[in-house]
Amino acid sequence: MKKILLLLTGLSIGMTSCKESLIQITPLTNNTANDFYIDEYQLNQATLSIYNAYNTIPVSSNWYLSEVRSDNTREINGGGAQRDWADIGLFQASSQTGALQTAWTNLYSVIYRSNILLEKSTKFKSNLALQMQAEARYFRALAYFDLVRFWGDVPLVIKILSIDDAKFMARTPREEVYKQIVDDLQQAGQILPETYALADKGRATKYAAKAVLGRVYLTMAGLPLKQADKLELAKKELADIIAQEAKYFAFPATYKDLFTVAGKNKSNVFEVQYISGGTGLGNQVPAVQAFQYPSQWSAYQPIDGFDGEPDPLLVSAYSKTDTRKLATLDSGYTDTKTLAKSGRVQFTKFLEKGSTLPTNNRDYSTNFPVVRYADVLLMYAEILNEQGSLTEANAILNRVRTFVKATGTTPKTQAEFRLAMEQERRFEFAAEGLRWHDLVRTGRAIEVMNAFAQTYSIKLAKPIGENDLIFPIPLNEMNINPGFWKQNAGYN
Predict the structure, then answer these.
(1) Could you read off the pLDDT of 374-388 as tens digits, one per residue?
(2) Torsion, Cα of 254, 259, 261, 264 (10° steps)
(3) What is the DSSP pairing of strand 16-17 with strand 20-21?
(4) In the CATH hierarchy, which fold is given to the domain comprising 38-246+470-478?
């Protein structure tokens, strides 16, 4: 079965894995944007390079800046030696925290490649060219959505800038950034196809754009914008996807099937594509979410050894029948070769145990979901509850719970449903990078995280407040034109 192969600059890819034939892509090492874009073949290569740039985001954004920031993970021994993840999780991050610069750079790399394609492809008038331009808009919107949630006002760049122009690019108010995100996703949704032939499975679709747009509108309805009119807009986008369930988004046999190589691109709305083989196109997420693997799980150990753990209260909160727990977490092991034992709980959602495909600890084959169908359903249910349709909302929530063999819930009020939904999303999307954003948009981050710190006697320099809902602008960015940007409040 053919799969989309994402372009890795400087490498010529021609390989097979798992009986999958892959698109062979010529390297771009000796090409520049000025002498590239000769034909639609090269236009496609440039489009795939945007996908490749986005491959870094699940680690730098979803994990380090969202999951680690939330109450889903708990630092052990105060983080021990200095680690960026510990500073972020303990609310000690500063403008010099390297993980912030990495995430910022990775996101703007996606935007830069998208802008180049959109500008250089205007000479192409075919429907295929329009599709690729829509893919670029989709990814640009995804990148700005992360940027505006993590940093608030950020430079809104939608064209290629000279170095001098870039030095004097002001930070754009977040409201304007959101307008651009919405515009990009609306245009992408109008042009992108509903699905692709087998060779191009994994590319962004009309419903991927609609799903992200629904999430964007839901976020705009919450904090900090509080634009309540966006709820109905979100509802419409999500309803369009739900109407296509039988055609594109049917639930798989089990929850675990959503995170396996065999289940790639079958049920989720959009996934970041990865493949093993030592080409640099592998998934690094399993290597940053765990502490140590026994030999029967993987031949390779996690990167640096994550000195943290899933929140014990999260671990204990899953019901006994809920299949998500075993698909998301592992509570210890005995190594079959060394007989070494560990009782430490780890996230293993994206580790396909025993796979011989990876060639190193950054080379796993499982994809990473950007939007899952369960997210579409739960966002829709959340909106129904806010609009007063509690019974209908609860039916959808319990449909998700039934799929994972969890017992049903019966919240009696809108407020009770909100808390039930908060907990449900935590169970459903643990380790996927949604928790922090959920807490912020619902106005619960400060209360939940201060209680979390108190529960585990985490020593904070000060109670978590409004300033902590966004990160400081990385110091390197501030130093490009000293004094031109004002740092986010509460940071120096």
Answers:
(1) 999 999 999 999 999
(2) 90
(3) antiparallel
(4) 1.25.40
